[in-house]
Amino acid sequence: MIFVRLSEEEFTQFASHHPQESFFQTVELGHLRHLYGSELHFLGVKEKEQIIAASMLTETRTIAGKRTFYAPRGFLIDYHDKQLLSYFTKNLIDYVKKRNGMMIKLDPNVIYQLRDINGNVVPENFRDDETIDNLKELGYHHYGFNLDFEFTQSRWNFRVSLDVPYEELKKRFSKSTRKNIEATYKKGLQVRIGTKDDLNSMEDILIQTAERKNFAYRSLDYYTKMYDCMGDLMRIYIAYVEPMHYIECAKQSLEEAKAEYQTVLDKMKKDMVGAKLKQQETTLQKKISKCEQELEAAYDFQKKYPQRKDIGVLISLKSGLEYLTLYSGYLVEFHQFTPKYAMYNEHILDAYRFQIPYVNFYGISGVFDPKDKNYGMYEFKRGFGGNVVELIGEFTYPVSYWYYIYMLLRRSKIFLRKWKAKRK
User: Fold this and answer.
1) Computed from CA positions of residues 72, 78, 83, 87, in that sequence, does the dihedral angle turn out positive or negative?
2) Distance CA 110, CA 157 (A)
3) How far apart are CA 320 and CA 306, in angstroms?
4) Mode of pairing for the β-strands spanning 156-161 and 358-363
5) Among 38, 91, 209, 252, which is disulfide-ready with 3 (CB 3.0 to 4.6 Å)?
6) How far apart are CA 256 and CA 186, in angstroms?
């Protein structure tokens, strides 16, 4: 075996066929991080001229000129092969030391255990303690089995297997999810694939969403660079309302309601009018009234927004065997259109078109309590069927004593921030 630096082409060829492949370990993401100051390192192990392990690492300057090396969702290696893992680690440590590095961080794309849709461990579960033990034996520190979003990448994801045709998959959706998907299209909402020209509109939507949910926000500059770097790996879904289409959909719904109502009236003329027919009559009268209000709202919308109005956005990425939802948001004043249901549905349909076997709705909390602050995120995603995936988590390897100084300063900074927040 020999430890080597790889060309971008060599790395891409290996990574694109590796079972742990993800967009986090791509040259494209590396180029994006390089634009924000990170240096890139493509490293690997060859045996008989064949690459048998590899990883992209980003190098970032920290205190006193020291550097951290991070392998996002890396390494791409057989973690059960202790000899290979040990060889790669020892050579990587030497490589990092020569570059004034103080730590190596990684959060492998390795499943710890599978769980069902409710977050319960499945009976046939295989728990990958071996990978964790092998890393710890080599000196890596495991940050444990965190339940929330404390670290760089989410440890808990929600994934849907596209192992059946779409119409069969829809049967696995919750009743409310199917109803919301149907209603959002019927209301006149449409989804298109965004281009670079849509980034300004997308920024407005994501800013409002970040402020509403108290999330960190990325700038327009970041999304522009991301769009340029990611190429075909990235796709933007824009949910929008076109006023004339909205009006036509409202008219059609009203006509359908009136037709249903007339059918009931005709039946009442012929049959004995019982409680059931009277109930149908009352229900359809309310439906007609609601449709008339919707049509009036559509005309008001046209006056206010004579042109198309973008109201939601979803950024998706091809990530190995998964089609991943990265960021999403919508304008809260248009919540009645429930745009997320339409965008996520289009994401699933495209995964079928791309012949990608899994849809990954990405991060959720590992706390499955309806009272938890993040439960709504999980509840929305579980409506599409699927199961919870628990990854093994984050690891660090201290390369020098500066690591401990850095961690002490970092914890002190976090403590002071929380202390100041409590005093406000």
Assistant:
1) negative
2) 12
3) 41
4) antiparallel
5) 91
6) 12
Name residue 303's amino acid. K
Burial of 145 (0-12, 13-18, 19+ CB in 10 A): middle
Tokens for 302?
A: 């046209």
Burial 212-248 (b: 16+ CB within 10 A, else e): eeeeeebeeeebebbbebbeeebbbbbbbbbbeebbe
End-to-end CA distance of the chain: 58
- DSSP secondary structure letter of residue 395: E
Residue 122's SS3 state is coil
Do 396 and 152 form a contact (C-beta atoms < 8 A)? no
Query: Which distant-in-sequence residues (6+ apart) come within 8 Å of 190 by Cβ?
Result: 239, 240, 241, 242, 245, 342
Nearest residue to 325 via CA among 354, 355, 358: 358
Length of the chain: 424
What gap in Å lies between CA 316 and CA 338, rounded to an integer?
18
Can you tell me whether residue 376 is helix, strand or coil?
helix
Phi and psi dihedrals of 296, rounded to 5?
-65, -40
Sign of the C-alpha dihedral computed for residues 221, 322, 60 and 155 taken in this order: positive
Walk along the chain (424 residues) and give the pLDDT tens digit of each residue.
999 999 999 999 999 999 999 999 999 999 999 999 999 999 999 999 999 999 999 999 988 889 999 999 989 999 999 999 999 999 999 999 999 999 999 999 999 999 999 999 998 888 999 999 999 999 999 999 999 888 778 999 999 999 999 999 999 999 999 999 999 999 999 999 999 999 999 999 999 998 888 777 888 999 999 999 999 999 999 999 999 999 999 999 999 999 999 988 888 877 766 778 888 889 999 999 999 999 999 999 999 999 999 999 999 999 989 999 999 999 999 999 999 999 999 999 999 999 999 999 999 999 999 999 999 999 999 999 999 999 999 999 999 988 888 888 877 877 777 676 666 6
Q: What are phi and psi of 345, to 5 degrees?
A: -65, -40
Strands 309-319 and 234-241: antiparallel
Residue 372 parent element (H or E): none
